[in-house]
Amino acid sequence: MTAPERSHLSGQALKAYDRMLEQVQNRLRSVQETTLETLEEEVDKAIEVEQELEEMTRDEISLLGTYLQRDLEHLMHFVDETGEGLAEWLQLDISLLENSLTERLLSVADQTLVDTLSLRQKLESHDAGQYIAGEVATAGMFQCLNCEHMLCLTSTSHLEPCEACGSQYYKRVTSRWPRKES
């Protein structure tokens, strides 16, 4: 994908990601108990709604759904494991974020302390915390896996290659997580 094509896609992708996050959050409010399965179902429904808008291709929207699922699962696992809040997960001052994004993320995190998530993530073979340049991710601190340079996203954005070394790979940096084993 050329830089102009990516630039054109960026605005649509970021807005679509935020709309999908809002749709998932709104639907989860009416659910008594949120499980990993209900989260997956709600992300799938949000994907369907975005596909009906026909602003992006099916593949692009499916990819955004994967990014959204990854971010929400990561947030849920963090809250479940640590009992910490959104500020610690994002490693940002909450005042830097839009109020609407903060409220959407908090409402999902507060409803999703799920036992099955921890087991599922342990069983998955890939590192759920790894991010690749070009992917869409929500706000937070990211560390280059090559040179450890820090990248701060204050809103939903495309991850850019590391400005220090050009590497494509990052991990999300959170406060005191994962827990160190004694």
Q: Structural class of the secondary elements? A: alpha+beta
Strand arrangement across the biggest beta sheet: 1-6-3-4
Mean pLDDT: 74
Overall spatial form: globular
Number of helices: 6
Describe the structure concisely for a colleague.
With 182 residues, the protein is of the alpha+beta class.
What descriptors fit this protein?
182 residues; alpha+beta; 4-stranded antiparallel beta sheet; 6 helices; 53% helix; globular
How is this fold's topology laid out?
Layout: H1 3-29, H2 36-53, H3 58-82, H4 86-90, H5 99-111, H6 115-123, E1 130-132, E2 136-137, E3 140-144, E4 150-153, E5 157-158, E6 169-173
Antiparallel strand pairs: 1-6, 2-5, 3-4, 3-6
Helix pairs in contact: 1-2, 1-3, 1-5, 2-3, 3-5, 3-6
Structural commentary:
The chain is globular, with a radius of gyration of 16 Å. With 182 residues, the chain is of the alpha+beta class. The chain has 6 helices and 6 strands.
